[in-house]
Amino acid sequence: MRILKIKKIIWTVVLCLVCVGVIITYLYEHTRCSTAKYIYSSLQKIPKNKAAIILGTSKYTKNKNPNPYFYNRIAAAELLYRSGKVKYLILSGDNRHRSYNEPMMMKRELNRRGIPDSVIFLDYAGLRTFDSVIRGYKVFGQRSFIIVSQRFQVERAVYIAHQFGIGAIGFVADSVDEPEDLLMLIREHFARILMYWDIITKREPKFLGPVITIP
Prior knowledge:
This protein has one domain: HUPs (Rossmann fold, 3-Layer(aba) Sandwich), CATH 3.40.50.620. 48% of the residues lie in helices and 13% in strands. It has helices at 2-35, 68-82, 102-112, 129-138, 151-163, 180-200; strands at 39-40, 51-55, 88-92, 120-123, 144-149, 167-172. Strand 3, helix 3 and strand 4 (120-123) form a beta-alpha-beta unit. The mean pLDDT is 89.
C-alpha cells in the first residue's frame, strides 16, 4: 500500500509539472504569434516613429566582460536614429542605486558614437519591461513608439503595450550566441507568466512622476 501511495504522489507531481509546462509554452507562443506582425528586423521595412524606447541592461556581464546584449541594443538604436526612422531615443533602465545606472551607461555609449544629448531622454525608473513600456506612455507622453531589444523581450514589451492601448512596434537587436541566449530564453518563459499576471491585475509601474515633454 505504501508503494502504491508513493507512486500516486509521484504521478500527481509529474502531471502537475506537465500541466505547468503546457501552460508556460502556450503563453510563450501566444505572445509570439500575437505580436509577430508588429515586430521588424529589417531597418528598411520598419515604419518611422517619433521615438524609440531602448530597454536597458548592464554594460558588463557578471564576469566583468562586455555584455553583447547591451552593445547590440545600442547598435540597433544608433541605426534607427541615423537612418531617420526616429527623432528621439528614450533610454529606459534600472537605476536603483548610485553605483548601477543602466540609462546613463547607454547614454554614454551613444554619446561616444556621436549621438547628441539633444535627442536622448533618460528613464531612470524602467525597473522592469512592464514599467518601461507604461512609462513611455504615461510619463513621456508617447501614444506610439518603437521598442528596441532582442526579439524575446521585444515580443513581451509589444504585447504589454497593445494590452494597454499603446501603438508600439518592435525593432529586433541582434541576438547572442548560446549558451547566454538559451539561458535568457528559459528565463523569458517565466517572465511571460509574470507579464500576464501584471496585465490581469492591471498593475502600475513602481514609479510614475511628472510628465516629461518630448518636443
